[in-house]
Amino acid sequence: MKLLKSLLISLIFLMAINVYGQETAVPSDKEVSYAVEQEMLFNKTTSSHLIDVSTVNGIVTLSGQVNNMLEMDKAVQIARTVKGVRGVINQIEVLAPDRSNDQLEKDITEALVRDPATEAFEITVDANNGVVTLNGLVESWQEKRLAGYVVKGVIGVKGIKNQITVDTKSRRSDADIKNDIKKTINNDVRIDGALIDVEVIEGRVYLSGVVGSANERVVANAVAWTNGVVAVDDSDIKIKDWARNENLRMQKYNIRTDIEIKDAILDAFSYDPRVSSFTPDVSVSNGEVTLSGKVSNLKAKRAAESDAKNIVGVVSVKNYIKVRTANIPDNEDLTMNIHNALLRDPMIDRWNIEVTANNGVVYLDGMVDSYYDKFHIEDIASKEKGVVAIENNIKIRDDNDYHYYDYYDWNSYYPIYQVDTRTAYIDDETLKKDIEDRLWWSPYVNQDEITVKVDNGTAILSGTVETRREKKQALVNALEAGPKDVVNNIAVQKFEK
Hints:
497 residues, alpha/beta, Histidine-containing Protein, Chain: A, four-stranded mixed β-sheet, 35% helix
């Protein structure tokens, strides 16, 4: 079996060389390190001056010091989004503020109880000098992962030992598990999974084959944790740039009926612990999705929309889900609950944010340094019980000098981009070359599908791609080069049904 797989990969490799005419040049380790440094510099979610980057044979090592686990995770995510990166070794030290074990345990327990998706989890918390051990029982790997994410969002956490047990309640056949994983990979726009092979033995999943980026391998591992899985091994997945070529996608983006799209969205909802208990209504017409129904919190509404956008074949999403809660806290209590949640968070605890509430509508005012901070604050408020809508009036310093694109939600592998465009190039030809270079470094777009023109500092993008995500990523890459503006004329290919 292994021999046959190796022969198949070799055959596909030869096909790829034939497609390109020659194999794409492999960047040097020094070039990869520079590219990672560049992404961190332009991405305002990390303190890039505190993080060191080194690369050996495509394996990137991150070291240095940050003050919370969320920032550490963002640095790792950014590194995975660079072409040529085959893996990331995380040696970043988290120097969170020292807090007493009792106070840290109290705040973590409060965060888990107040989060609408984790409030019912049976979890015990033990803190020892900032290192938190979680024990308990949940029904899915996604719930276990979400609990860990919530804990990372508490100030003072320096490390996590997630020992929560997953009890799936029912045993499934290996064949059913395998079919579910293959279907999920095929439905997810974040993975070109045509070259991924799936094997399941007694609930243990073995992934092999080829993907185009380190980030795709991480996503493939995550979506493989379907019901009944006890372990996932992705060590046999290789990362090759040529795997991103559209001719090797095996018709991944072709011919999706509305029924197939709807079924895929409902499957995604069933695995998202923020949405699974609500099962919003889904209707699809020519790839245009409409969500309706009721959920108990604003974060669930937003998570449902994000899940739908990750499905192949979705053209647009209209979100008419209503947030309805049995008991809306009075204005003073809701304001205090959100204020306390902001104080627990390590990313934005230093900002003086004014919070007011009126019948479930929350108003946020103040000033922060970045769009990341602004929308991170909004995300925290969206998880509070009783919040039905948010008016985010937080202002950004030098607002006119930044472009902002948010790819983030709790289960996303795309970092938030805030791009500084204050230093535009005078030379159009130099700017054009820099944009093309940044497109080349991105594992999410194929440079040869996109044409770049620059007119007096304004970049004009054209061409055809297969997903909305590729179009947006090309825009982000262009903005990173520092143009005065970007006109994105890239078309998203529509396949006939």
